[in-house]
Amino acid sequence: xxxxxxxxxxxxxxxxxxxxxxxxxxxxxxxxxxxxxxxxxxxxxxxxxxxxxxxxxxxxxxxxxxxxxxxxxxxxxxxxxxxxxxxxxxxxxxxxxxxxxxxxxxxxxxxxxxxxxxxxxxxxxxxxxxxxxxxxxxxxxxxxxxxxxxxxxxxxxxxxxxxxxxxxxxxxxxxxxxxxxxxxxxxxxxxxxxxxxxxxxxxxxxxxxxxxxxxxxxxxxxxxxxxxxxxxxxxxxxxxxxxxxxxxxxxxxxxxxxxxxxxxxxxxxxxxxxxxxxxxxxxxxxxxxxxxxxxxxxxxxxxxxxxxxxxxxxxxxxxxxxxxxxxxxxxxxxxxxxxxxxxxxxxxxxxxxxxxxxxx
Length: 360
Hints:
- By secondary structure, the protein is an all-alpha fold.
- Helix content is 67%, strand content 0%.
- Helix 7 runs parallel beside helix 9.
- The longest helix is centred in the middle third of the chain and has 36 residues, at 211-246.
- It starts with a helix and ends with a helix.
């Protein structure tokens, strides 16, 4: 029987054992799982208690994490957790030595040729060669990380990010992959994700991390702080915008567009001559400005005012339907008790409305 099949059998037995111990499988199924493990061991002639054989089969990983890498290669979401603990001793930029790195002599040759293409800045060729190496050894973190670097050099940052993520899943201790993931995320606009990647690299390097890793982290952190500040400024602007918008246009409880109102009523810009008075000058009068504000904020009072026969007559005169066709005598209108009372109400009872209208 092939050795790879025995290794897989050991990996499955290990997976079943861990699924029981971590609670993935209910303790009620313990007997069934133990029978399944025994059957697999007997069929494939392996010894589950042989720790050396188990370590040779899966290294320091698990069947679940290995399958997680496969899922990512297929474009699916991995469910394998990513270790976050840092080592007290600095690690080198090589894959973890606790388990074998999947590779073949032919794959190594493709990698070497890819490295030469990178030195010559022939990035498309390098990508092609690294891809051939990955085809032979899909979970090798060096090949994945090297292709990520080639993608970044070709400005294909989404592809670089995907390869770097696969490399970190295959071997989190291979710190070059974290650095390349940090760079790809930063260029893609994910400053927070970039900062997290560089932090992982620092943790796995140990002793505070390398200068290059710390510089990448510092740059990403500065960008995150800048984005948070800009986001705060935008919130302030959005909060202030309703008040600003209230002073222009007919809405939001602010003053109406009086120039448009004059056009609708058939008036011109200047006073006299049978047309509308100069509304710009009129609204400089605090009394009329207060009246207009309160009219717009009190629809019921406005409706009552427009039901007044004298005002309807005045509106007809604005439109040319009356005999005069022009602006009526304001002083004569205000001698009418009902109109005078309505005007005082529109002013908020002698000035109360102005203060109420200014508060928002």
